[in-house]
Design a protein that fits this description.
This protein has 11 helices and no strands. The chain is mostly helical. Helix 6 runs antiparallel to helix 7 and helix 7 packs antiparallel against helix 8.
Length: 277
């Protein structure tokens, strides 16, 4: 049992779970626009998510414990290096337009973790984008929108029309909602100068915002030129499930409430779409 728990914790801590969620959300996009699966894009997104998340999460820890890294962190570093090499391999299989856009998001990810920016842009004594007051959730949502909506469409030479833009807005809103349970959980640990949504408006109002954003996510579907009953039903089902996770989120949530269950929602969304198809 202890070994299984260690394997499961590695699965969560090494960002494999969130990477599968990113791949699932990309597959949702491909299904919604009736496009075929592109192995190279999905493999790249999976490996890039692992690389990016682990870089952001563990850069500071590794920097200060270089000579005496814990065994679990060394394992994650080796795993992340392999993921990075795999990411580079699949990046070479993407088209030139994708690589141009990806370079921009690569810089954003780098600045999100590395302290290079001038201190005058910050309220705290950190110098990376992650510590900019109130910015974290929007950077994450923005990166997810490009990765799971625009990248697969660009790779399939799909024309960026109004339906794509609406889908991008929907995905941006949905990812922000998924972040709310994490922000509620981290109220105990986050510096008040980060100005996260729950810090600024409180837990109760954060949940109200989550409800309103989910309604926006759902009703935006009716503004699309190519509206499908399948997407309306699947969006409604995932809305109701996500709503429950937002409403039941609290500061003392269980270890896996956000890190596993909330991050499983994109995977569940894909399963719902496949079951309804």
């Amino acid at each position: 049992m202890r070994v299984l728990r260690q394997i499961f914790n590695f699965y969560i801590n090494s960002s494999i779970h969130v990477a599968l969620a990113a791949v699932a959300m990309t597959c949702v996009t491909l299904l919604q626009f009736e496009l075929g699966y592109n192995k190279n894009v999905l493999a790249f997104i999976f490996l890039a998510t692992i690389t990016g998340y682990n870089f952001v999460k563990y850069f500071g820890i590794a920097k200060f414990h270089h000579r005496g890294l814990a065994a679990w962190l060394k394992a994650i570093q080796i795993f992340s290096l392999l993921a990075f090499l795999g990411m580079c391999y699949y990046a070479l299989k993407l088209n030139a337009n994708s690589l141009v856009y990806l370079s921009v998001f690569g810089i954003i990810t780098f600045l999100y973790a590395i302290p290079l920016l001038p201190m005058r842009y910050f309220r705290d004594n950190q110098k990376n984008l992650r510590q900019v007051s109130g910015l974290k959730v929007y950077i994450i949502a923005f990166v997810w929108v490009f990765t799971t909506v625009f990248l697969p469409l660009i790779e399939n030479s799909y024309h960026i029309n109004s339906d794509v833009v609406i889908t991008g807005v929907q995905r941006f809103v949905f990812v922000i909602v998924l972040m709310l349970p994490f922000e509620i959980r981290d109220l105990i640990y986050d510096s008040v100068k980060l100005a996260t949504i729950p810090q600024q408006i409180g837990v109760r109002n954060t949940k109200i915002i989550g409800v309103l954003l989910l309604l926006i996510f759902f009703f935006l579907e009716f503004f699309k030129d190519n509206m499908s009953n399948l997407d309306i039903v699947s969006n409604f089902v995932i809305l109701m499930i996500t709503l429950l996770f937002v409403l039941f989120a609290h500061k003392k949530q269980s270890q896996y409430y956000s890190a596993f269950w909330v991050e499983s929602l994109p995977i569940l969304w894909l399963v719902i779409l496949l079951m309804l198809s």
